[in-house]
Design a protein that fits this description.
The protein is an alpha+beta fold. It is 16% helix and 31% strand.
């Protein structure tokens, strides 16, 4: 049995943005690389026309055009998935809309395996005239989507042949001849288990001559022959009844003697032609003009070939095979004999021998590099290539060269070899192997081994605090922080970090968030701190600008990053990665106090600072993509299995490869990490730390607590459903869905009021959802931000508007709902800061760091 494709970790009622990282990345890749009828643009077209979620999710045309020409490396599909998730699309809806677009969701883990069911079979018997088109059609369902392969058995033969290139549900032959008469069957499969393969009943095609020209009768295979062709079809099978009456179809009718008058005077002749040379096939005719010609090669009509001669220049192996021509003048139609075009058979086998001119070369590379293996061979016959790694064939690697771009995985290391085959054509037009050789083995070695295979470093946990400030009271608004925080979070979640992400915090909220976050830090824990927003440098210290800072803010009114690090170091973590995506220009107002050094336990040798830019320079964001330049280059590196120092070194190299960015922004790295092979991808171990790990997990989960889904029963039989989602720990999406309209119509419900101190992000959005009953249900979505400012329980008013069926009048009804303290609101981050600054400051010598 095939593996069940359904991923048990997927919440189909959850947001698209909550998809597991590996599934999200695979879906993004499919939508980016699929053919035009199944790519991300096709998905948008389906959104506009789908009856399942009609008008619920809208992507503006101008936004689509902005996505398409994005900076190299951007993913339009990734932007689409993120946008759909932010609009409230569930994973189940994404699966349905992808299936409606024709995209197979089985390999994404979003669909269960379904056996093939044939919903439409080809006709059992088809009679066509010589020269008419033949169409056989089969339809089937299943997951993964079914794949088709047609087979054909000519009349009088007992061998079914695979019809090359006919791998669709519809088999079309534009002009049939007597050579097309026989049995046809389609093999349908969607897994490797032969027991689950389906074969259609045999369709017997009879080709009768046109009224004017005469022809001999047909000789289709009899019942015994068909039984030998398909041994699995016995007299006890469902196809047994089909065998009956075959003898009655063995001839079309009495044969007619050939007329002495013929259009064809001189027929086609067989040709032997060496590879790369030219050949000509010619037919001589006589009769009343105009005379037309239709040339066929291996039963396929040749386009734009309408004369008595067929010429081929520089013949290739695909030009070998069988040729014939149909000649007609409106009164008569005749077919030439079938001529074979083959390569000459030589007495010596030297031209069939394969000589390798150049061998693939071993390589020693590092992560992020690209590898190219090449082999050059010569032979008098056409060559086929198949690259092999560690004894296994590499799927799709069938060229003389094999490329591996941007190596990220240690599994790319190994032995590479190429199998080379010489192919020749038989007199029947089939391609068979003449000889084969293997190239020398080439070894790919990665200089920096994967730390995933290094058991030396196994942290007890990995945690990250991400803060993005974009909406300022007195500063210019920024566009990049929300998306940069989202991208950073996705990358860290994919390598098993416990992430806390917050947007638009004031000074006490940032400081209290740091204090609370430190409860997740302990010995042998990795801690990441990322801030994206306005900032500045004063007296060698970087400061983060909170959203409530006044227009002429001083360092005392901002957050000191040294104090952030001081709080982290009190818990003695194994690794601290400080990423500051801020400007490092001089502040607006100089500090009124001299800088004071903090005891940060620098002697631990565990801190790596990553500044978005160098001292005295600004940090920039791309207005078109709404991303910061730092995150554009940093995000792909976070999941690499390399040491922390190598990661930040690669970051600087990535910037240097983009002159447009490196001219205006140069990242600066400061690191005193002693164990430089510690990596963000190191695997977590719970051994001996089960209780501490469970306690951290419970505390972290409390920061993500959302109100539970609930139903509200209102007068007149109205039933509403409240559902909740969150992208960040202080932003809550509320969905209000009308489950039952009761004795009303035109019923719509929405959040009309909410607790003070929080605000609405964007407008209220209407949507429709199709349930199992296939009836569209209507609802609204509202996004509430600043959950950290709640001083009491979150209370919302749900208002429903409806028309009462009994009197036809419109009414409003409002009900208040208490949602408790969701997400981080229970932490009371708005309170005055405690325990952020050290109670006693001690002077110390300036910490020495190594600049990378």
């Amino acid at each position: 049995m095939p593996v069940n494709g359904l991923n048990g970790h997927v919440d189909f009622d959850g947001s698209v943005n909550d998809l597991p990282g590996n599934i999200w990345i695979k879906a993004r890749g499919m939508l980016d690389t699929n053919p035009a009828n199944m790519d991300w643009r096709a998905l948008i077209r389906t959104l506009e026309t789908s009856k399942r979620i009609k008008y619920r999710y809208k992507i503006k045309p101008q936004v689509v055009e902005l996505w398409a020409p994005a900076i190299s490396g951007e993913s339009a599909a990734g932007k689409l998935l993120t946008e759909l998730g932010s609009q409230g699309m569930t994973v189940g809806e994404l699966r349905d809309i992808m299936e409606e677009t024709g995209i197979d969701t089985f390999n994404l883990g979003l669909s269960k395996y379904e056996e093939i069911k044939i919903t439409r079979s080809p006709e059992k018997g088809v009679d066509v005239h010589d020269g008419d088109p033949l169409v056989l059609e089969v339809e089937a369902t299943g997951k993964p989507h079914p794949r088709f392969q047609w087979y054909f058995c000519p009349n009088g033969q007992n061998d079914f042949r695979k019809l090359q290139g006919h791998t669709e549900g519809i088999l079309k032959i534009p002009y049939v001849t007597s050579a097309n008469a026989g049995g046809y069957s389609c093999q349908i499969h969607n897994c490797r288990d032969p027991k689950l393969t389906r074969i259609t009943e045999i369709s017997l095609v009879s080709v009768t001559p046109n009224p004017n020209p005469t022809a001999n009768g047909l000789n289709p295979p009899d019942a015994d022959s068909l039984a030998q062709m398909f041994p699995r079809l016995s007299t006890n099978s469902p196809h047994a009844s089909f065998y009956e009456g075959l003898e009655n179809r063995s001839t079309v009718g009495p044969t007619t003697p050939r007329s002495p008058y013929s259009l064809i005077l001189k027929d086609l002749q067989d040709v032997e032609v060496p590879l790369g040379e030219s050949f000509t096939l010619a037919v001589e005719t006589a009769g009343d003009p105009p005379i037309y010609y239709q040339w066929f090669h291996n039963e396929e009509l040749l386009k734009n070939q309408f004369g008595p001669k067929l010429s081929m220049l520089n013949s290739q192996h695909q030009d070998y095979g069988h040729y014939y021509c149909i000649v007609g003048n409106g009164l008569r139609k005749e077919r030439t004999r079938t001529a074979s075009v083959t390569a000459p058979i030589r007495n010596s086998g030297q031209d069939h021998e394969i000589t390798i001119i150049s061998q693939p070369v071993s390589k020693e590379l590092k992560f992020g590099d690209s590898a190219l293996f090449m082999v050059e061979a010569r032979c008098g016959l056409p060559l086929q290539y198949q690259w092999i790694k560690d004894g296994k064939e590499i799927e799709g690697a069938t060229d003389f060269e094999y490329k591996i771009y941007n190596i990220q995985d240690a599994s790319c290391s190994g032995l590479y070899q190429c199998e080379i085959k010489a192919m020749k054509m038989t007199t029947e037009g089939r391609e068979v192997q003449s000889s084969r050789v293997f190239s020398n083995m080439a070894f790919l070695h990665l200089k920096i081994p994967s730390v995933n295979d290094n058991n030396r470093y196994n942290p007890h946990d990995k945690v990250a605090l991400l803060i993005g400030n974009s909406d300022y009271l007195s500063e210019k608004a920024l566009t990049a922080p929300p998306k940069d925080i989202q991208e950073m979070a996705e990358s860290l979640v994919s390598i098993n970090f416990k992430v806390v992400s917050l947007l638009n915090l004031t000074k006490p909220e940032i400081e209290n968030a740091v204090v609370e976050f430190c409860k997740l830090i302990d010995k042998n824990v990795y801690a990441v701190f990322y801030f994206c927003g306005h900032g500045f440098e004063d007296s060698g210290v970087s400061y983060l600008v909170p959203t409530d800072a006044p227009s002429m803010y001083s360092p005392e009114e901002c957050v000191n990053t040294s104090q952030v690090l001081y709080n982290f170091q009190k818990k003695n973590p194994a690794l601290v990665f400080m990423v500051l995506d801020i400007c490092r220009t001089r502040g607006k107002v100089k500090s009124s106090e001299p800088p004071k050094e903090l005891v940060t336990q620098a002697q631990n040798g565990n801190v790596c600072y990553c500044y978005a830019t160098s001292l005295g320079l600004a940090a920039f964001e791309d207005k078109n993509t709404q991303r910061g330049l730092l995150m554009r280059h940093l995000a792909p590196l976070l999941t690499r299995p390399i040491g922390i120092d190598q990661l930040v070194t690669d970051l600087k190299e990535e910037f240097s490869r983009n002159p447009k960015h490196s001219k205006i922004q140069i990242p600066e790295i400061r690191s005193n990490v002693r164990e430089t092979r510690r990596s963000l991808t190191d695997k977590i171990t719970h051994r001996g730390q089960t209780q501490a790990y469970s306690a951290r997990t419970m505390l972290w989960c409390s920061y993500h607590d959302k109100p539970k889904k609930q139903d509200l029963k209102l007068p007149a039989g109205i039933v509403l459903q409240l559902d909740f989602q969150s992208d960040h720990n202080n932003i809550l999406h509320i969905f209000v869905l009308v489950l039952e309209q009761g004795e009303t119509q035109n019923c719509i419900a929405f959040v009309s009021n909410y607790s003070p101190r929080i605000s609405c992000l964007g407008d209220i959005v209407q949507f429709t959802r199709k349930e199992n009953t296939r009836k569209e249900k209507y609802g609204t979505k509202i996004t509430l931000q600043d959950m950290q400012k709640l001083q009491d329980n979150l209370v919302v008013d749900i208002t429903v508007k409806f028309v009462y069926n009994r009197d036809g009048k419109e009414y409003n009804h409002t009900q208040r709902v208490d949602l408790g303290l969701p997400l981080v609101s229970k932490l009371k981050l708005w309170k005055p800061t405690k325990d952020f600054e050290p109670k006693h400051r001690q002077p110390m010598e300036q910490e020495e760091t190594d600049s990378t």
